[in-house]
């Protein structure tokens, strides 16, 4: 037998079929085969994790890198370092908060130039759908963006305005024509208000769950009428679940995600002035959190991704009405979700499905999302029993701002391999763009 480049053994190898004792054999950048745990295999390098877990590299399809233009918020180097440290081997970059936003092929080229030589994990890209750029969607799709992000309410940055219903319909019709995907920030602007005070209760009341439900219902109707595949981003309100479930049962091509902060944090925990917790839509009640977990268990929500949306610390002023809305958690998503998932009786195979396989399938990323022969050798050595005290100053995110600071989370990432090589500070990530006819 020709020697393998790498063999990683674990009695807790998490495959698409569940946990098993296995030896994962790697040749070049790909998984060549899975063998019995104790199988004698010739290899240039061998790692035996014994009872530690071996996970597939996570796929985070909701990351705001912000470079170029707002690199002082977050850039490709810092974001992808944080990703690798958290067991994430592929990210998909959001089209807004960078300047220019990724709403044309020229802007995509600017992204690619900015990312070159900086990425510690593989990086794919979303395009943006904004008023007036319908003509740009097919060319961006042809260049290999994974789909198109749009807003139904103001985005928070003036260069990425929302789509009114008529504009949204036009975008969906255009994208349906070439079989693409539209991913949607779904809040109804008619049901949003300015907070009536600086505290969290006022902010939460200004963005009620009904605003998400209303927007999701409108989106489902448009998807049904146009035939466009749509995905609802960062569901925070359980009021959306019955609308989504009914649409999925009717065969409407709609899926949805939630985020670690909605599954692990709760409004009752938000401290006075703790604007590291501010995000849009907001973190809601403990009872709402329980219902989101139930929606995840039932498959109404398919993905758990970070919505890593960082900013400089000075924008997180201690006034919820004025502070920037975004949570930095790219490095912490796995441990945060595992902490709560384990408490609720879920296993590592569930976490891998939500955070690796389903996001990879959503974005259509070949070779990603699972430990199986033929896939990229994206692997994570994970100690599920370790306790990790979060110190924001020790994270790889550009700014030490996170609501998880001071919390003890369950689990620790020990080693991350990207396409068979350990992530070691030398960038060898690559852009995932596949030109389409």
TrEMBL record:
Recorded GO MF terms: allantoinase activity
Pfam families found in the cross-reference section: Amidohydro_1
Signal peptide, first to last residue: none
Domain Amidohydrolase-related per the UniProt entry, residue ranges: 54-423
EC number: 3.5.2.5
InterPro entries: Allantoinase (IPR017593), Amidohydro-rel (IPR006680), DHOase/Allantoinase_Hydrolase (IPR050138), Metal-dep_hydrolase_composite (IPR011059), Metal_Hydrolase (IPR032466)
The family this protein is said to belong to: Belongs to the metallo-dependent hydrolases superfamily. Allantoinase family.
Oligomeric and partner information: Homotetramer.
Protein name: allantoinase
Organism listed in the record: Nonomuraea composti
Encoding gene per record: allB
């Amino acid at each position: 037998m020709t020697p393998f480049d790498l063999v990683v053994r674990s009695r807790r190898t998490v495959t698409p079929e569940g946990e098993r004792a296995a030896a994962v054999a790697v040749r070049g950048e790909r998984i060549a085969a899975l063998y019995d745990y104790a199988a004698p295999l010739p290899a240039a390098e061998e790692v035996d994790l014994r009872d530690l877990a071996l996970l597939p590299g996570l796929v985070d399809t909701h990351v705001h890198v912000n470079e170029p233009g707002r690199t002082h918020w977050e850039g490709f180097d810092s974001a992808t370092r944080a990703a690798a440290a958290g067991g994430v081997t592929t990210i998909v970059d959001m089209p807004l908060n960078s300047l220019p936003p990724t709403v044309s092929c020229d802007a995509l080229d600017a992204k690619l130039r900015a990312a070159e030589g900086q990425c510690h994990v593989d990086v794919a890209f979303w395009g943006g759908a904004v008023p007036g750029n319908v003509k740009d969607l097919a060319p961006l799709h042809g260049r290999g963006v994974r789909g198109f992000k749009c807003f139904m309410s103001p985005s928070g940055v003036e260069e990425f305005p929302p789509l009114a219903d008529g504009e949204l319909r036009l975008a969906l019709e255009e994208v349906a024509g070439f079989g693409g995907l539209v991913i949607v920030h779904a809040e109804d602007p008619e049901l949003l208000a300015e907070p009536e005070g600086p505290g969290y209760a006022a902010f939460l009341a200004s963005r009620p769950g009904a605003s998400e439900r209303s927007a999701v219902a409108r989106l489902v109707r448009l998807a049904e009428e146009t035939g466009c595949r749509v995905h609802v981003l960062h569901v925070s309100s359980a009021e959306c679940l019955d609308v989504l479930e009914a649409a999925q049962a009717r065969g409407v091509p709609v899926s949805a995600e939630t985020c670690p902060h909605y599954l692990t944090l709760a409004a009752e925990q938000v401290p006075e002035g703790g604007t590291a917790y501010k995000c849009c839509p907001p973190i809601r009640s403990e009872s709402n959190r329980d219902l989101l977990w139930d929606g995840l268990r039932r498959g109404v929500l398919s993905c758990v991704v970070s919505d890593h949306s960082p900013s400089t610390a000075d924008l997180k002023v201690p006034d919820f009405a004025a502070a920037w809305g975004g949570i930095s958690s790219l490095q912490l998503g796995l441990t945060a979700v595992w902490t709560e998932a384990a408490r609720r009786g879920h296993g590592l195979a569930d976490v891998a499905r939500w955070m690796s396989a389903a996001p990879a399938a959503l974005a259509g990323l070949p070779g990603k999302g699972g430990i199986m022969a033929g896939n990229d050798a994206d692997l994570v050595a994970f100690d599920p029993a370790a306790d990790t005290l979060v110190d924001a100053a020790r994270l790889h995110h550009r700014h030490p701002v996170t609501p998880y600071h001071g919390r003890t989370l369950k689990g620790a990432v020990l080693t991350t391999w990207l396409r068979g090589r350990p992530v070691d500070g030398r960038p060898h990530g690559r852009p995932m763009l596949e030109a389409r006819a």
